[in-house]
Design goal:
The complex is a heterodimer. Chain A is an alpha/beta fold. Chain A is built from 20 helices and 21 strands.
């Protein structure tokens, strides 16, 4: 037994190592990145855990599923929107079932600190009919990973561990236990289980639904779902929302409480609470999943159910102790002064000397002969080019969407249809839309800003940079005459503008790579 | 006992290093602690903060509730103002006066210092000045840990031990620079605090601290200096007119 100071993400990582994983899979994405990085660093010397970033979350999930098939334990980690990318493999892995334990650690981002939405992954667990564990603190992050692997191997389905930013990126001392040995190689050759042609899939899916009463029983009996009946006013808290509640209550409070950290929702415990109280407040960091389920379409007779849908808790955004305090109708604590709104904001910005600055200055100038040109962009540091002073890009939707959207706009007759995408985002989600566009001979211009790394999440390894990237792009069948490479440095500005102008004027698909290494990665010697 | 601190600054200023020292000191001293931080997009030169809590009993929330913050510890003066509304009424601001200007509408330094000086419970330290004197401008964060240290619940040596652990990988020289920065910050903070208590205006206190030889500053000498420059600050001009840094034990020469 040992004590270490760990982020929630790192506690997940160490828990997984100690639970005997043989592989960790993922694609970088805030707030999940540090799970993988921790395991990568910690196991580097021993070399006994496969840890290599995947091209995207779908690939990561499939690799993890393959390791499970082979009988070993695998952790796959991603941010919430990454699970959208992995959803095909994820949903079907619940139907095939697993062999070695398979745990999905997914980090949601309520409040959108570093994301384009605040979707709640608990819906995905419910959708796939698998259990979900929701740690309330960093110690539970560590402990629940052990349970998640045991649960996965016991009931032979993947298990989700759902984090939120505030757990993922908060540190405390965590007590660790003795490690579980890794599983032996023991491939699962039950062909009908793994071959989801309809005749087999129907059997497998029926089997998954047959497991549901057992999952419900486990949730009912779980010590992580604790019911404490006191007064007539009830509160359900999910995951870390309980911390915000107990922060505001004295130990001798008179609320009846149900704390939930294991799903499916323990209906029996909810019923016991509902039968005991005459009003109910529901606190969850994310969507009003439990709130809507408990209220149903028509509400609970005689009981007022309050939460995000009724305005006591804001419909959007991250939960915090102050919001909960207000919902409890407690007076705000006195403070030294009021919030004044006249302070200059300090938004994030591209680093001094960033190659993207030079790339987008060149693009802005190349486009200045067009009337109000719009540029489709993507997920990465360069999304910051949307803000002043550059204001060079005008969309940021999903990984790889810049190219697909530019193609669609071009189909509709919009010109010039320009997409801007980074090297890693291109390998993640940009290759397939570029192949489509080239094969259809669409009139679009793709600017690939190749900085040789995954910059925003902390300079992880990029899958397609340099000559690998060039070969992939040429492999789509694009004309070599309209595949250009520029170096985005201030001295080259005029000639870079010229190259971009020429390609903008060309009627057909073109790709310009702006290639210069990320200065942060150079500083960290990451490349 | 419960202590809640918001550490504030700009991405890249070493907020997490400050948190490392305080977290480890808290664990070493047997406290419960939690420390929430910012990763990802906001780190790119934006305003960042870390919530640090330690206590002799269990801590629930990773975020400090409004009204429970005991200290805003800021490596940057504009950022010090951003979290004041979380402070409890008698809470303290411990702030650097060295601006980090990376936005076009950054306020004038004078008006910023006036805003800070208007805060009743504040310790101000020119971190660039003391970090340079300690041997590296990058050590401003450790100047701030030092300045805040008298109000933390740990012995000076316990904190210095974790400053050493933090920089050990970078070699003895870097460790020494950062420990010196810590000591300078601690002395400057105590000295400023003492002047302030003795009735010297905060702006005058800042000017005086800037004129003293960093190696010699001693919080115990603040009342002698308060006397030297007088309630109205009339004695300050003579100190500022000295052609080089003044040793802290020379207050009598200006009285």
């Amino acid at each position: 037994m040992n004590r270490e100071i760990l982020l929630g993400d790192e506690a997940i990582g160490l828990g997984a190592i100690h639970a005997g994983i043989s592989g960790v899979y993922g694609y970088p994405g805030t707030p999940s990145t540090e799970i993988f990085e921790f395991i990568e660093q910690r196991t580097k010397k021993a070399g006994d855990v496969h840890a290599f970033w995947s091209t995207n979350e779908k690939v990561a999930y499939e690799e993890a599923l393959g390791m499970s098939w082979a009988g070993k334990r695998a952790l796959v980690c991603m941010k919430h929107v990454g699970l959208n990318v992995a959803a095909d493999a994820f949903m079907n892995s619940a139907v095939t079932g697993t062999n070695g334990g398979l745990v999905l650690a997914v980090a949601d981002d309520p409040g959108m600190h570093s994301s384009q939405n605040e979707q709640d992954s608990r819906y995905f667990a419910q959708f796939a009919l698998i259990p979900c564990l929701e740690p309330r603190n960093q110690q539970e992050c560590y402990d629940l990973i052990f349970e998640a692997f045991e649960l996965s191997e016991k009931i032979e389905v993947p298990v989700m561990v759902r984090l939120v930013t505030r757990i993922a990126h908060s540190r405390t001392a965590v007590t660790t236990r003795s490690p579980h040995p890794q599983n032996e190689l023991k491939p699962d050759k039950q062909i009908r289980k793994w071959t989801l042609i309809p005749v087999n899939a129907r059997v497998q899916y029926k089997g998954l639904t047959d497991k549901q009463p057992e999952l419900l029983r486990l949730a009912e009996e779980s010590p992580h779902n604790s019911l404490e009946l006191r007064g007539k006013s009830g509160i359900i808290v999910c995951g870390l929302a309980g911390n915000y509640l107990f922060e505001n209550l004295e130990p001798d409070h008179n609320y009846s409480t149900l704390s939930i950290a294991q799903y499916p929702l323990p209906a029996g415990k909810v019923r016991s609470l509902v039968e005991h109280v005459d009003e109910l407040l529901i606190l969850e960091d994310g969507y009003p999943l439990v709130e809507n389920t408990v209220r149903g379409l028509f509400g609970l007779e005689g009981i007022r159910v309050r939460g995000r849908m009724t305005g006591e808790i804001p419909r959007t955004g991250e939960l915090n102790p102050d919001i909960v305090r207000e919902a409890l109708q407690l007076a705000p604590l006195p403070t030294a002064c009021e919030l004044t709104g006249d302070l200059s904001n300090r938004p994030p910005a591209l680093c001094q000397g960033c190659p993207h600055t030079d790339s987008f200055k060149a693009l802005n100038d190349a486009l200045n002969t067009y009337d109000d040109p719009q540029v489709f962009s993507d997920i990465g540091c360069y999304a910051l080019a949307a803000l002043p002073p550059l204001e060079a890009v005008h969309s940021c939707v999903a990984m790889g969407a810049s190219i697909g959207m530019a193609a669609g706009a071009a189909h509709a007759g919009y010109s010039p249809a320009v997409a801007a995408i980074g090297d890693s985002t291109f390998s993640h989600g940009g290759i397939t839309p570029l192949m489509s566009a080239v094969q259809q001979n669409v009139n679009l211009n793709v600017l690939v800003v190749d900085n040789s790394t995954v910059g925003m999440t902390g300079t992880q390894r990029s899958m397609s940079t340099g000559t690998t990237l060039d070969q992939i792009i040429l492999g789509t069948g694009i004309s070599e005459d309209h595949f250009r490479i520029i170096e985005p440095i201030p001295r080259n500005h005029a000639q870079n503008v010229e190259v971009l102008r020429e390609e903008l004027a060309f009627d057909g698909p073109s790709v310009v790579i702006a290639r210069r290494a990320c200065i942060e990665a150079l500083k960290r010697k990451a490349i | 006992m419960e202590k809640n601190i918001i550490v504030a600054g700009v991405g890249g200023q070493g907020i997490l290093s400050i948190a490392f020292v305080i977290d480890n000191a808290a664990m070493d001293a047997g406290f419960h602690f939690k420390q929430a931080e910012v990763h990802g997009m906001a780190q790119r030169g934006g305003a960042v903060q870390s919530n640090i809590r330690y206590s002799d009993s269990e801590i629930w929330s990773d975020i400090i509730p409004a009204g429970k913050v005991d200290m805003v510890l800021s490596v940057e003066p504009l950022e010090a103002l951003r979290y004041r509304h979380y402070l409890r009424p008698e809470g303290w601001v411990v702030s650097s006066t060295t601006p980090f200007v990376n936005i076009p509408n950054y306020p004038e330094t004078e008006s910023l210092l006036d805003d800070l000086s208007a805060i009743k419970n504040i310790v101000m330290v020119d971190t660039a000045h003391f970090a340079r004197a300690a041997g590296s401008r990058r050590a401003q964060n450790m100047v701030m840990v030092g300045a805040a240290s008298p109000m933390l619940s740990f012995e000076e040596d316990r904190l210095l031990n974790f400053v050493e652990k933090l920089f050990a990988r970078k070699g003895e020289k870097i460790v020494a620079v950062n420990q010196r920065a810590f000591r300078f910050g601690r002395a400057a903070g105590l000295f400023f605090h003492g002047l302030s208590d003795a009735g010297v205006t905060k702006r005058d206190a800042l000017r005086l601290v800037g004129k003293l030889d960093p190696e010699t500053i001693d919080g115990n000498l603040s009342s002698a200096w308060a006397k030297a420059i007088g309630d109205d600050g009339s004695g300050l001009a003579a100190v500022l007119a000295a052609d080089k840094a003044v040793a802290c034990d020379q207050a009598a020469a200006f009285t």
